[in-house]
Amino acid sequence: MANRGPEATSALDSLRELDLSTIDVASVPEELLGDLLATATRLESQAAAPRGSVLAEADRRKTALGTAASGTDAWAVEFTGDTREMNAGGLRIARLLEEKYHATRDAFAAGRVTKAQVRVIVNAAEQSPTRATELQVSQAEELILGKATGEGRRNGKPMDPKRLRQAARRMYDRIDHDLADEHARGSLTQTQSEVRGQVAVGETADPVRAEESSHCWTTSISASRTEAPCGPSSDRPSCARSRARRGSADRPSSGPGGWPRRRRR
Q: 73: how many CB neighbours lie within 10 A of its CB?
């Protein structure tokens, strides 16, 4: 096997010398600002993709064993400046891209999808029913990837991570309706688990509304193939009843003239 050490060193030196600070944004014509922003976003993705690949390769080689670090995620802290938990999350996604989701991996490396979009696609694909075949999972990945890049949409525009997450819950619709329903239920269970975890650590500002949203998703999945999470303007009966219950619980019962009733001793 040829020694590719010098070639790798040359590529690394080129990356080190890359300096984007020379771009004077103030001198860019207004009609080109959008193109510049799109280019910067693509470069950001192209830079994030090899970072994940390096994490995965270091984990494969068990590089951390030669150091005092307890694992690859801890080993990477020194080089990334991120927490161990953040590195662990990036390592998980990188492993899955290398092992399963090659279409998404290639799109990420080309800068066609962002890191947030990649996370949505991979997490949604990982919720695939166990009976889904490898081909079906690959087809579902391609469909949702097309929405992320915009290539699979009529307007040709990329779908942001929030809307992509909603679309990903029905990523099997065109493949198999039974799989689509099963996948949607699995995605709902995962969402509810995340909400419960956020409530447990105090990350959810309004646990009642989070519970309402989960309830509406359940109703939506069983009643139709569309989802409509609760919101302030939602007119779904179940959402209205939930808000009414919450409102009545917050208000004390009143007597004549609107004054609060006195409790009997």
A: 23
How far apart are the C-alpha atoms of 148 and 142, rounded to whole Å? 10
Single-letter code of the amino acid located at 204 = T
Task: Mention every residue, 6+ apart, whose C-beta is less than 8 A from residue 4.
Answer: none
Q: Are 144 and 171 in contact (CB under 8 A)?
A: yes
Task: Output b/e per residue, 94-124; b: 16+ Cβ within 10 A.
Answer: bbbbbebbeebbebbbebbbbbebbbbbbbb
Give the span between the Cα atoms of 235 and 241, in whole angstroms.
Answer: 10
Cβ atoms < 10 Å from Cβ of 7: 10
pLDDT tens digits, residue range 235-255? 444 455 555 555 544 455 455
Look up the pTM and report it. Answer: 0.67
CB 183 within 8 A of CB 171: yes
User: What pLDDT, in 10s, does the model give residues 87-100?
Assistant: 999 999 999 999 99
Phi/psi at 260 (5° precision): -60, 140
